[in-house]
Amino acid sequence: MNCEEIGPFVSELYDHQLIPRHAAEHILSCAACRARLSGYAEIGAELRLLASQTLSASEVPMSRLPPQRASRWGEWRQRLTTPLPIPRYAAVFTIAFFLALCAALGLVETQRAAEETTQQFQQALQQGDAARVKMMLQKNAALANSRNDRQMSPLHIVIDESIADQPTVRQIIQLLLAADADVNARIPYSKRTPLFEAVSPSRRSLLFGMNGTAELAALLLAAGADVNVRDWQDKSPLDVAVMAGNTEVAGLLRAKGARMDIYNAAELGDERLVSEILNPQPELINARDGIGRSLVEIAAVKHNARLVQLLLTYRPTLDIFDAAVAGQLPLVEKFLDADSSNVNAQNGRGMTPLFFTALSGQKRVAELLLARGANVNWGRRYNVQGPVADEASRSGWITPLHEAASNGDREFALLLLKHGADPLVHDQGGATPYHVALMHGYSDLAEELARQAGLSQQSPDGSTDIEENERAAVGFIRVLNTVEINYARSYQTGFSQNLNVLGAPPTGTEPDKTNAGLVENLLSGRTKGGTSRSFEAKGYRFLYTPGPPDATGKITTYMFVGRPLTYGKSGKQSMFCDQTAVIRGTAEDREPSVTDPPL
User: Fold this and answer.
1) Model confidence over 5-29: pLDDT tens digits?
2) Can you give the pTM of this predicted structure?
3) Fewer CB in a 10 Å sphere around the end CB: N or C, the chain?
4) Count of CB atoms situated within 10 Å of the CB of 384
5) Fold agreement (112-260, 318-455)
């Protein structure tokens, strides 16, 4: 057959019909016939041609048949069900993004769980729960080097803040060291290691005395604590121990290689050592330590008159500040005669000559300075100094009256008050001179200062000054924290069961655990409006809640809450504090709690 005869079969093939075998063989062998087919029809025809060689028409699979024109509904169904042509890189990106999102969500959850675990661990340290500390360290040894929100390590926390007894604290320290706790971990802002906490005047030294701190210091030293490390003030642990008068710890540090200098010798009042250092190097008599203190100042502030006289024999060069603190009246007068402005001169720490007389109790020199125009209310704080001139500037200052109160010097304090000293100025912790006297155990002076400041007097709702009331409230809580520590240390029965037991004993009797004599009547709840667990002052009501006794009968936890008598009128801050001594607050009209932020 020729191409013309095959033509109809080509047409039939194009129309998707089966053709005879001989026609199929011709098309396969004829290039012209095959050329008549093109595009997709040619491919489909060839498939059917191959199928016709082996299958009958009824046996051709539907998947091999050429596509039929779909109905309109079929076209829409095909469009809806056909996958979108997403580029390969987009699909990869989508999958990667989904996986990253899942990982991020998992990381956030993991981090939240880790933070909760760390907080629980820190609470166990503060509560002295050795069993829980041990269990958590076994599960996660990395907790031994975790940090709290103040960047304190677990060793810092347990030494300075734990309410546990000495054996328990020692056990927890050993657990932490066994878990590779960094014995030389430093708090970023103070640069202090745990050894500083062990040798510093702190809650622990108040609770357990100097012997307790010596034992803890020995544990740290045995674990490799750096004995000559320096803090942000360039002080070493030995400097801190010596300034605190902790001679036992100072001896321990010296035995471990702490470097003793002339300032340490002067702090300790070691006349022999001072002479041994000065005799071959007499020029050191005019040396000053890292914060600018002279040897004469160090000895005078320690009220060591003999050492002051010894130092004066080496003929030091004294400025007006050294002369004032050492009680050198003629020399002070000479400075004032030479330049009257010297009466309110300030040294590098923002302290006037009157400040120095308050530090060492030099009343005669103070009288001269006040007669010559000394500013009795000159205040100082970190990097700032100046006159405390008005109500707005009363917060955050330390004045000569604060210094006199910390020394318990009643005569000096009355002298300052007579010349117009402001008894309501607050230091950076919120304490007035009254609070300072109480914290140092001078309840008689505190009572006098309270009368002068009007702290025990108020209008019915205490609405005279909201900011003043709030600052006073912080001061009261701060005092009570210190008093609770002193009570626990003195009677070894834990914290007090109520406020009344902190008050003065009956006339003619000695203080005991039922009448400790640590605060005056206002803070012990013995005045009008007070109870065994509450008192009212400066527009606030304060409530004390002791925790339950432990197995030994000791009260190891407590809470103080201070709330305004009339919210918005006598105060806007409610305050909470527990045995950790962290004062927390809220400006909302509700009960404050441990979950509120620190003030």
Assistant:
1) 766 666 666 555 666 767 767 767 7
2) 0.61
3) N
4) 10
5) yes
Task: Tell me the one-letter amino acid at 462.
Answer: G
CB burial of residue 446 (10 Å; 0-12, 13-18, 19+): buried
Q: Are strands 534-537 and 540-546 parallel, antiparallel or unpaired?
A: antiparallel
Quote the tokens at residue 315.
């003929």
Q: How many residues does the chain have?
A: 599
Tell me the β-bridge partners of 38: none
Alpha helices in 55-183 (DSSP H): 72-81, 88-127, 130-139, 154-161, 166-178
pLDDT at 77: 58
The Cα angle at residue 39 between residues 34 and 42, in degrees rounded to 5: 40
250 contacts: CB under 8 Å, gap ≥ 6: 238, 241, 242, 264, 268
CATH of the domain spanning 318-455, picked from 1.25.40.20, 3.30.930.10, 3.40.50.300, 1.20.1740.10: 1.25.40.20
Cβ atoms of 166 and 124 closer than 8 Å: no
8 A C-beta contact, residue 45 and residue 13: yes
The tokens for 331 are 């020399």
Specify the CATH superfamily of domain 112-260.
Ankyrin repeat-containing domain (1.25.40.20)
pLDDT digits (tens, 9 = 90+) for 544-575: 999 998 888 888 889 999 999 989 888 999 99
Distance (Å, whole) CA 136 – CA 318: 58
Tokens of 33: 């016939």
